[in-house]
Amino acid sequence: MQSQTIPINPTILQWARMEAGLSLHEAALRAKVTPPRKKKDEPALTAEDRLEAWEEGRDTPSLNQLEHIAAAYRRPLLTFFLAQPPQKVETIADFRTVGGRPSSTDSPEFAALRRRITLLHQELRALAEDAENPRLPFIGSLSENTPVPLFVNTLRAALGAKFEEQRRIRDENAMLGYLRDLAQHIGIYVLLEGNVGSHHSNIPAEEFRGIALADDLVPLVVVNPNDARAAMVFTLVHELAHLWLGSSGISNFNVLGHNGADGGHEKLCNQVAAEFLVPEAELLARWRTPDGTLSSSIDTIARYFKVSGAVIGRRLLDMNIINSQEYTSLFAIYKARWVKHKEKMSLQDGAPGPTQMVKYRLGEKTLHTFISAAREGRIGLQDAARLMNIPVNRFEQALR
Fold first, then answer.
1. Helix axes 358-375, 108-130, angle to 10 degrees
2. What is the pLDDT of residues 96-128, one digit of tens each?
3. Quick check: pTM over 0.85?
């Protein structure tokens, strides 16, 4: 018996697929569309043909089929019953590159994450305006012409981050927490978001490493946790530099420098992050001619600074301490390590679910903002939970 069909807007069906960046073939696979039953004396149709017929209004999917489509496109089911496509959320500048060329292609998962981050930011801004919060003077206070040493000193002074304290931090995990706390303390929201609800929808670091929203009322930074921890530390400082430039955007920069970031804000933000985490004077004071292999000597230095070996290698190249041939050899080593790291991450199961990771994902500042607003009646429990992507009962527990 065939499932009951339902009336939908076929225009929305095609729009949602195009917004997800999927071809008919890719969409049919993701949405588990099956070929229709062959009719007598008619040619056999494919799953793509069936999906195309739905998009053109010549046929309609069942509710079960539409639910599969909604999941594949990362859209709410209600979307497909709208009279017209929803208004597109405000776009963010895209600094991403692939193979040295600009790239702004989004997977359905990242497109969904972008929408959620944008809506979250809009609500945080509305709450800040309602509370008459002061604007933050450091957002956009520097320019592309600011010398890197002055930029780093300005950033350190605002955050209250002293290099002597960084040296005493035990590892990359603690470094990430230390810098995140400092940023939140001065009014910056720092989120660690890399999927749309479960590890099955993890977005690789190659698609995005960080997002910066340089809003002087609600500055917000997102760091992709599906990356090596040391790389996340670098990303956080890189995105903070974007805030001081007043430059909102999405980045997938490669700390090794082989990503086309040859100028502009991306190059400057990389330079600022490198000098902030590995000051040139400190590196020169600790660097010695390697007794063993170059990579092992770099790894020793990297542990001291709590950064990746890739950051140290790039710093040594920029300072003309190693040559391009040595760097090319290092590049191969670090690339192989990253591939191995990704394989290890993909095999990890049993990690805490998203509701147990809410504080880690959203950060204390985001949680406290919504908890305070809910207690004061400025936002409903369901709206707050929806924006934070957690169950209502989890938010109620946070309130209690």
1. 30
2. 766 555 566 788 899 889 888 988 999 999 999
3. no
**What are the residue ranges spanned by the domains of the chain?**
10-81, 97-277, 358-399
Q: What string of DSSP letters covers 239-281?
A: HHHHHHHT--EEE---TTS-SS--SHHHHHHHHHHHHHHS-HH
| pLDDT, averaged across the chain | 85
- What percent of the chain lies above the pLDDT cut of 70? 88
CATH code for the structural domain at 10-81: 1.10.260.40
Indicate the angle between helix axes 309-318 and 264-277, nearest 10 degrees. Answer: 110
Cα distance between residue 182 and residue 186, in whole Å: 7
Tokens describing residue 133: 């919060």
How many Å apart are CA 227 and CA 74, to the nearest integer?
23
Give which of 6, 374, 375 is closest to 383, Cα–Cα: 374
| Tally of CA atoms within 13 A in the half-sphere of 171 that contains its CB | 3
Q: What backbone torsions phi and psi does residue 372 show, to the nearest 5 degrees?
A: -65, -45
